[in-house]
């Protein structure tokens, strides 16, 4: 029972480089989310997808793009990485946006130098 | 501007003691208040949650106290154990909206 799987677990990028963070869930959930976690800031929502085919901005969307590839997969892309995007990124899923419990992946630690 | 303010940022407690984490909010539309527990290198996981129509909810050694008039809620960890050492996040949700998280509290339980 894998739950929510994120890849990669660690990544170092140079300023200006691009990369895509991958996320897949096997719980047949409709909604998926991308959060970033920074010390003292809690978890801040970047983008979410209420259902397959839809995506919406969260609190801190600038510098990111997302793709809901299918019901299972939701990717996060950094087109031109900046040091301010150094963070730990978490993907999560839930049955639907109004549902109570969100299930999180193990995170991707990204460093931009 | 954080809609959910959490304190303290860190907490050290002796084994067997009580850990208390507090959260305050402004948005009266929030209708669901979960607490998440996160161990190092792992993603957060739901620990316990409460709705504003009750003032207290207990699950094992974990208790949420909710004060609707003060717009505050807290997590109490009774008989704290070294295995409880983790970061705890409070959160709040308004119907139709996403979860808003507090800044987190790192709890260390000393044996």
Task: Give a verbal description of the structure.
The complex is a heterodimer of chains A (113) and B (111). Chain A is built from no helices and 11 strands. Chain A has strands at residues 4-7, 10-13, 19-25, 31-38, 42-49, 56-57, 64-68, 74-78, 87-94, 103-104, 108-112. The relative contact order of chain A is 0.33. The mean pLDDT of chain A is 92. Chain B has no helices and 11 strands. In chain B, the strands form 2 sheets. In chain B, strands 2, 4, 5, 9, 10 and 11 form a 6-stranded mixed sheet that branches. Chain B has a 5-stranded antiparallel sheet with strand order 1-3-8-7-6, with no helix packed on it. The N and C termini of chain B lie far apart (37 Å). Chains A and B meet through strand 5 and strand 10 of A and strand 5 of B.
Write the layout of secondary structure elements.
The complex is a heterodimer of chains A (113) and B (111).
Chain A: E1 4-7, E2 10-13, E3 19-25, E4 31-38, E5 42-49, E6 56-57, E7 64-68, E8 74-78, E9 87-94, E10 103-104, E11 108-112
Parallel strand pairs in A: 2-11
Antiparallel strand pairs in A: 1-3, 3-8, 4-5, 4-9, 5-6, 7-8, 9-10, 9-11
Chain B: E1 4-7, E2 10-14, E3 19-25, E4 30-38, E5 45-50, E6 56-59, E7 62-67, E8 72-77, E9 86-94, E10 100-101, E11 105-110
Parallel strand pairs in B: 2-11
Antiparallel strand pairs in B: 1-3, 3-8, 4-5, 4-9, 6-7, 7-8, 9-10, 9-11
């Amino acid at each position: 029972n894998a739950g929510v799987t994120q890849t990669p677990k660690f990544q170092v990028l140079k300023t200006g480089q691009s990369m895509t963070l991958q996320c897949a869930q096997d719980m047949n959930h409709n909604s998926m989310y991308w959060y970033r976690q920074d010390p003292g800031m809690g978890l801040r929502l970047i983008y979410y997808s209420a259902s397959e085919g839809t995506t919406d901005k969260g609190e801190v969307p600038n510098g990111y793009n997302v793709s809901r590839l299918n019901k299972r997969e939701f990717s996060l892309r950094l087109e031109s990485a900046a040091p301010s995007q150094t963070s730990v990124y978490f993907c999560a899923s839930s049955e639907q946006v109004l549902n109570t419990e969100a299930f999180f992946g193990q995170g991707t630690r990204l460093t931009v130098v | 501007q954080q809609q959910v303010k959490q304190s303290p940022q860190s907490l050290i407690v002796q084994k067997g003691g009580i850990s208390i984490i507090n959260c305050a909010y402004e948005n009266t539309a929030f209708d669901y208040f979960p607490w998440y527990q996160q161990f190092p290198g792992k993603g957060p996981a739901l620990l316990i949650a409460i709705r504003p129509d009750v003032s207290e909810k207990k699950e094992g050694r974990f208790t949420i106290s909710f004060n609707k008039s003060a717009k505050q809620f807290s997590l109490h960890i009774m008989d704290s154990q070294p295995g409880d050492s983790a970061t705890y996040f409070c959160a709040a949700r308004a119907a139709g909206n996403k979860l808003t998280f507090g800044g987190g509290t790192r709890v260390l339980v000393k044996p």
